[in-house]
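Exam prep: given the inputs below (a chain plus histidyl-adenosine monophosphate), describe the expected output before reading on.
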Amino acid sequence: MSAQEQDKAAKRAQWEEINRAKALAKRQKESPTDIAMRPSEIKKIFQAIRGTRDLLPPETALWNRVENTAHEVFATFGFGEIRPPILEDSNLFARSIGGETDVVSKEMYTFPDRLEDHPETAKAIQDVMKEQPRLVGLAIATSAAIYPFISLRPEATASVCRAYIEHNMNQLPQPVKLYYMGPMFRRERPQKGRYRQFYQIGAEVLGGNDAPAIDAEVIEMVMTFFDKLELPGLELDINSIGHNAPECRPKYVELLREELRKVKDQLGADSQRRIETNPLRVLDSKLEHEQPIIAKLPRIADHLCDACKTHYAEVKKQLQLRGVIYRENWRLVRGLDYYMRTTFEITAKGLGSQNAVCGGGRYDGLVELLGGPPTKGIGFAIGEDRLILSLQDAGKGAVRQGRDIYIAWMGEHAYAAAVRTAKLLRNAGFSVELPPSELKFGKALERASKLDSRYALILGDNEVSEGMFTLKTLADGTQQKFTEPELLEFLRL
Ligand code: HAM
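Solution:
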């Protein structure tokens, strides 16, 4: 750059600086109490990680309403809340959900833990590495699963079972009824209703017997919860996938595999692979051209052992007794390995392809698989993100975000009275906005409307000397004068 050009550039920069300062000064004059940067002026260096998102007000008020409803409804069914940790030993999920499932093999957030907390493992790894060059040793330690891996939980049933064993809950009166809510993590392809950090509200019944009445009551509870939220258009699908004895599900799976092999050429690549790995999952396929083929496959209900058949029939009877409307869906197999007998799924409207808002089922034997005593188990998890989307779609998502009262004060004496009044009204349960610095009445009323306030409480020197309050109803502009007790009485009406 020539000296002349350098000079020009410096001058241009100087002018730009001056113009920026002028614009800022102008805006400060326009709105002295609200100097905010324009969106275009903010550099977004950091953004939420793909598939994760911030839940913001006013929507968080709806989340709280949903969660409070869960606390209330589940308590009426005798459930207590459990809050398991978000991090668990990776093996817990591999063993319970199944190492071959998509959730464990493709979607879990898993990473090596630091070795400080695992002195014995650290020593074992050191021993391996002494024998081998460093990197090869580390690779062996990792692949031999000596290395401690931890995962962000992709679901919570496994954690609840672990906690049941860890805290000897089998010593408590059975069954133990627990519910939970919180974030889960699966590295799926994000889309509407599918996130990498999502939220579940779930419940589990552990121990006692496997009476079909328990299955029906668990389903009744989740339907009652949805009813309380007035969510329309829900559909409940149920099925029984039998149990692990050779004459039950394994026999059916073999039959299914044989039938699928006959039509292999007509299936897509995923289904072709699943014929050998997990033929039940073929029934889950959404591929259009596979639907007529699947429709002709043998159905599990016709191949259940007698005990599972009786159990399923009784679950249906128990649901009818409770007035729960369901649809039988022989293709409902679910994507996690621990299920047996009853499986169910609830779909909602307004969600597009990700329309399952709740999934659950029976998993007798899971606690034992994790090292505990033989234990019956059944539960469900609701996808809270999807539930919120569906409520919003149905027009049930509105939550008032405004303030009850905006205090428009002017003058030093009025400010002291405003602080005292704000405390009084907040103690009485009203939401109150108290501007921290003085505003002209016009400006204060403008802000009160912007914040969707119901009332503006006007406090000027006149009001303070008279010991009165002027209350303006912002919807119609009417004004009334009150003493303090009258004001509280009026607001409480
Ligand atoms: P799940 O079917 O894997 O079951 O998940 C339950 C619900 O969580 C789904 O129906 C869906 O609403 C929601 N969900 C799953 N993945 C995502 C995602 N990536 N984004 C948004 N929502 C999602 C279980 O997790 C079992 N633990 C349920 C259970 C409890 N079975 C017995 N007890």
